[in-house]
């Protein structure tokens, strides 16, 4: 009985994805990749999503302190086979070492957009309006009527 793919990743996919993420992080921290773009950039591996058959691992990375993420992502994808070979000892319990693909993680940009929206004057005005309504509504209850 196969589970539908729309229900999200399985527990096994999440566990293997975390193992792959840790292995990729170790390879990048040790500086084993001899590419100048990669070796001169601090790269954060935020998430690894596994395919249902565990044959493909898509790593979402954020190059820190770099404006042009595409250049770093291209260098990682160019060296993906080398990195795959370097992570294989850490993943020796797996039958097959997954193919690695690297993508830019845009979640930080999304978080900053949401933060900017929440800090905008229009939202702040609405939040202040809601707080004012709550404050005036607190003393209007039955227990507040007899205290004069």
TrEMBL record:
Coiled coil: none
Predominant localisation class: cytoplasm
InterPro entries membership: KH_dom-like_a/b, RbfA, RbfA_dom_sf, Ribosome-bd_factorA_CS
Subcellular location, record wording: Cytoplasm
Stretches with biased composition (Gly residues): 138-148
Region forming the signal peptide: none
One Pfam family this sequence matches: RBFA
Region (Disordered): 122-148
Keywords tagged on the record: Cytoplasm, Ribosome biogenesis
Assigned protein family: Belongs to the RbfA family.
Record's subunit section: Monomer. Binds 30S ribosomal subunits, but not 50S ribosomal subunits or 70S ribosomes.
Function, as annotated: One of several proteins that assist in the late maturation steps of the functional core of the 30S ribosomal subunit. Associates with free 30S ribosomal subunits (but not with 30S subunits that are part of 70S ribosomes or polysomes). Required for efficient processing of 16S rRNA. May interact with the 5'-terminal helix region of 16S rRNA.
Name recorded for this polypeptide: Ribosome-binding factor A
Protein's organism: Hoeflea alexandrii
Gene that this sequence comes from: rbfA
